[in-house]
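I am writing to request your help with a piece of structural work I have in hand. The matter concerns a single protein, recorded as an amino acid sequence and a row of backbone structure tokens. Could you please explain, in whatever detail you think fit, how the structure tokens follow from the sequence? Thank you for your consideration; the sequence and its tokens are set out here:
>
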Amino acid sequence: MENEAVSVDRGATQLRRLETLLDVAYAVLFVNFIMYLPETEDMAWTELPLGLLSVLIDDHVGLMRVVIGVGLTLISWNLTHKLLGPLERTDAWHTLLALLQLIFVCLFLWFAIADPELVSVSSRAGQSLCLAVSGFIGSAGWGYARKRELTPAGMSEAEKDEVLENAIIEPTTALLNTGLAFIGPEVWTAGWFVIPVVLISVQKRVARRG
């Protein structure tokens, strides 16, 4: 019993360290996106009619890319907390899955920065696939944690099912949006807003019928 208690304490400590590491990593990703806002160091914006707002308006496409990039990264960060928040502890394999999930979010950032104007189909599809794979790995991590009983003892099966149901929306959206990447950047961009609304609506209908 003592060894089991030590193992639980060690797993709980490891979970807190994992959450801290992921928070720091996502903070770095946010900063990387913010660095792609328009340059302002030359102070030329002081001569423009609306000052800094004119700079943003003139580069509205770049600004939209930053907003979407930060938004999608924020969604991935929130998904991570959805899947880690209910846990009581972690172990080596679960931690590995969480870090693998982060790697694919970093690959998403690489695709996004490489093609900020979404010229290439490959970059749009690459961003979607990276977020889809990342999210599904996170869901697999939740399934593993559930099987290994890394969740609190008092957590019901219904509550465990609800965590997965809430977490599956993001990667499913990304996967479906991969197809829209081949239509065009405008349709692909709109997909991030439309698809989750449709999925949530379908999920609610199924829940009511059940």
User: Anything to note?
Assistant: The helical segments are 2-34, 52-58, 60-84, 92-114, 121-147, 157-167, 169-180, 185-209. DSSP finds eight helices and no strands in the chain.
